[in-house]
TrEMBL record:
GO cellular component, one term: membrane
Protein name: Membrane associated rhomboid family serine protease
Transmembrane spans: 72-94, 151-170, 176-199, 206-224, 230-248, 255-276
Entry similarity comment: Belongs to the peptidase S54 family.
Compartments, as annotated in UniProt: Membrane
A biological-process GO annotation: proteolysis
UniProt organism field: Sanguibacter antarcticus
Length: 279
C-alpha cells in the first residue's frame, strides 16, 4: 500500500509560499518576507510584534520614558521668551511689556500676569540672554529625567511661585506694590532647586549647583532692579516639586506626581487670594 507524501510547509501569512525556514520562537514556517533576524536564528513578524508589545518601555531613574532627540519643552519655553522679546521690540517696550508684566497692584484683576511676566524681559539684552542660557544648561537634563509633563509643570509653577513671593513680600504702601517685574528668573531658579534635589537623589555631587544658586541669589541683593523675591519664590517652589518628583515611591510615582503638582498649585493660588483678601 502506498503512503501519500506529506504536504510541504507553507507560510501562515502567505499560504501560496512554501518555506522550510521556521521561527525560533513559535516554530511556524515563515517566508522571506515574514522573517526578522534575531540574535539567534530568525523570528516571524508576528512573534516580533508580540514581544515588542509585551516589553516594558525603558524609563529613567525618576520614571520618565527614555526619549531621544531634542528637548521639546525646553526649546518651546525658550522660543516663547524669544518671540515675546521680539514683540517687545516691535510693538514698543512700554506698550507690550505693561500688558503682561506682574505687579501686585494688578494681579487680582488680571491674574494671567502671574505667569505671563515670566516670558517678558527687560530692555537689557543681557537679561534674556542670561536666563535663556541658564534654561538651556539645566532644562534638557531635567526634562529628560522628569519627562515632559512634569518638567513643564515644574517650570510654570516655579514661575507662578516667583510672582506669588513678590506679592507676599511687597508693601502696599510703597512703590513696590506698583512696580512691574519681568523675567524667567523665578522659573529658572525653580529648575536650580529641582536639579539640586534630583542630583542628591541619584547620588551625584550637587555642590556646584549650590554655589550657582548662592551666587545668583546674592546678586539680587546687591544689583539694583533684580527681584530677589521672585528668585526666592521660584527656588522654594522648584525645590518642593523636585523633592516630590524625585523621592516618590516607584509604585506611587504617578499619584504623587499629579497630586503633588495640584497641591502646590492650589497652595500658591490660596496664598495669593488670602493676601489680596487681607488688604
Amino acid at each position: 500500500m502506498s503512503v501519500p507524501a506529506s504536504q510541504p510547509p507553507v507560510c501562515p501569512r502567505h499560504p501560496d509560499r512554501i518555506s522550510y525556514v521556521r521561527c525560533q520562537r513559535c516554530g511556524r514556517p515563515a517566508c522571506p518576507e515574514c522573517v526578522v533576524q534575531a540574535p539567534v536564528g530568525v523570528q516571524c513578524v508576528d512573534c516580533v510584534r508580540e514581544a515588542k508589545a509585551a516589553a516594558r518601555p525603558a524609563r529613567t531613574v525618576l520614571g520618565a520614558p527614555v526619549r531621544t532627540g531634542r528637548p521639546v519643552v525646553t526649546l518651546t519655553f525658550i522660543g516663547l521668551c524669544a518671540v515675546s522679546y521680539v514683540l517687545q521690540l516691535v510693538v514698543g517696550w512700554s506698550d507690550w511689556t505693561s500688558r503682561w508684566a506682574f505687579a501686585p497692584a494688578f494681579g487680582d484683576v488680571e491674574p494671567w500676569r502671574f505667569l505671563t511676566s515670566a516670558f517678558m524681559h527687560s530692555d537689557q539684552p543681557l537679561h534674556i540672554l542670561m536666563n535663556m542660557y541658564a534654561l538651556w544648561i539645566v532644562g534638557p537634563d531635567l526634562e529628560r529625567m522628569l519627562g515632559r509633563l512634569r518638567f513643564a509643570a515644574l517650570y510654570l509653577l516655579s514661575a507662578l511661585g516667583g510672582s506669588v513671593a513678590v506679592l507676599l513680600l511687597a508693601d502696599p504702601t510703597t512703590v513696590s506694590w506698583y512696580t512691574g517685574t519681568v523675567g524667567a528668573s523665578g522659573a529658572v531658579f525653580g529648575l536650580f532647586g529641582a536639579i539640586l534635589v534630583v542630583l542628591r537623589r541619584i547620588g551625584r555631587d550637587a555642590r556646584a549647583v549650590l554655589v550657582i544658586i548662592g551666587l545668583n541669589f546674592a546678586i539680587g541683593f546687591f544689583v539694583p532692579n533684580i527681584s530677589w523675591q521672585g528668585h526666592l519664590g521660584g527656588v522654594v517652589t522648584g525645590t518642593i516639586l523636585g523633592a516630590l518628583y524625585a523621592f516618590a515611591p516607584p509604585s506611587r510615582r504617578r499619584v504623587v506626581g499629579i497630586g503633588g503638582t495640584v497641591l502646590v498649585a492650589v497652595v500658591l493660588v490660596v496664598c495669593a487670594v488670602v493676601r489680596y483678601g487681607t488688604l
